[in-house]
Amino acid sequence: MEESESESAAHVLLLPFPAQGHITPMLSLAQLLCHAGIHVTFLSTEHNHRLLTQRRALSARFPTLHFESIPDALPPDQAPTIHSLHDISSSLRSVTKPLLRDLLITLAKKDDESYRSTTIRCPPLSCVIIDGIMCFAIDMAEEVGIPVFALRTVSACSFWCYSCIPDLIQQGQLPFQDQDMDHPIKDIPGMEALLRLRDLPSFCRMPIDHPSFKFFMEQIEAITRVSAIILNTFDDLEPLILSQIATRFPKIYTLGPFHALLKSRVGDDLSSSVSSLRHEDRRCMAWLDSQQSGSVIFVSFGSLAKLSRVQLLEFWHGLINSGKPFLWVVRSDMLSSEQEEHATPVELKDGTKERGYIAEWVPQEEVLAHKAVGGFWTHSGWNSTIEGIWAGVPMLCWPQLADQQVNSRWVGEGWKIGLDMKDTCDRSTVEKMVRALMEEADQREQIFKSVHNFAKLARHAVSEDGSSYKNLEKLIEDLNEKIVM
Ligand SMILES: O=c1ccn([C@@H]2O[C@H](COP(=O)(O)OP(=O)(O)O[C@H]3O[C@H](CO)[C@@H](O)[C@H](O)[C@H]3O)[C@@H](O)[C@H]2O)c(=O)[nH]1
């Protein structure tokens, strides 16, 4: 192969947080930048590097995309889930952080040796884009003198809510104890009439000295030091909140929905599975083909959610009692650790045959686009939410962690594109909510109208005249300019 050289002089290191919901948007961003000729070093922890089986295909498609790995302290056989945010963040700090410093120094040198073997000449590192919860990397990049941007993989409304937590503490609204969970939160600008205590990010339910609370507070403080924020949202979805964020973060690039912008810019032939850390059960697509249009409720709680056996069975009974056909992603690591980890209750699988399909992992974007799917029961992870909006599918929300509490409130009461059933999980509520989402004509029509409107706005955002498309051009220009400066 002849030696070629990319036109871009920019070389960006992308540092995702090691979990599916963070790797997927970061890898979409990597492809968008490489498509514009920018050199990208995509740095995963060793464990996830091995699981990214499509690395070769991606590097062949994008010659300026380089995959690198960095050790963490997790056992090699550990499933790709976070058992504890605290464990993973302390392993990143103790093991990954010092190595990252050495890597940044190496990549920042001109004529870097590590790329001599490749056919593309790679310029010295010019920018680091970290996941917004990998803030320990800011110190390293500052030390080496490289600008840092942050990709925040949550919605703008969640990001803004996180940013306002220090204010709520200062005003004495947090921490809260034995208070009515429906107590309104009035002091988050832009969402005055919307949130209740139960809608705040889940760590707000913990004592202020809990490691998770401290972890998030550190990130909230540190992220104010980055030069720019990138968000997987689009301007027409969260305009008021984005203007609030701009009062504290002057440089924001909204590029969402990432997966749709990727298809719009790079092409339709890309599989949505390139970033998957798990094996997909594609047989579910044939099962969907056999179902009536709009009849199926798709149930997926993302890559991290844990359920107790009681919750799992309540959900299952509720689904069965609703009488709706369902496609349900039940990961083998989904039962909480004190339960039998790798057991899906036999009762559940056997009893499902006639009424639904249970899968370990599915091609979610394809499933949401299938005509048989008429509703999406989700944990309100941001990727799932924005994928649901893009697909125009009404949502039922059962949030569990972190930002999910905020997203589900916005889905139910902000955007009115679904129903929020947070903090409940008994079978009769599940049955009632599934029926309400799938059957109640007036309500369904309202939700449909609203979600279809946002799906239309999302299509505009990623088109050539749209905000996300233009913001990407601006980002590329700015990344390239940094080299000249
Ligand atoms: O069978 C499945 C199930 C999920 N997915 C994909 O996995 C991703 C899941 O992401 P998300 O919906 O955001 O959920 P989590 O995996 O829980 O993501 C974590 O990261 C998100 C982004 O920061 C946060 O919003 C969540 O709260 C946090 O739990 C999505 O792209 C899905 O399409 C599949 O491809 N197949």
UniProtKB/TrEMBL annotation:
Top-level class of the enzyme under EC nomenclature: transferase
GO molecular function list: 7-deoxyloganetic acid glucosyltransferase activity; quercetin 3-O-glucosyltransferase activity; quercetin 7-O-glucosyltransferase activity
SUPFAM superfamilies named among the record's database cross-references: UDP-Glycosyltransferase/glycogen phosphorylase (SSF53756)
Keyword Signal belongs to the record: no
EC numbers for this chain: 2.4.1.323
Reaction(s) the record says it catalyses: 7-deoxyloganetate + UDP-alpha-D-glucose = 7-deoxyloganate + UDP + H(+)
Keyword Transmembrane helix: no
Keywords: Glycosyltransferase, Transferase
Family according to the record: Belongs to the UDP-glycosyltransferase family.
Protein name in UniProt: 7-deoxyloganetic acid glucosyltransferase
Organism of provenance: Malus baccata (Siberian crab apple)
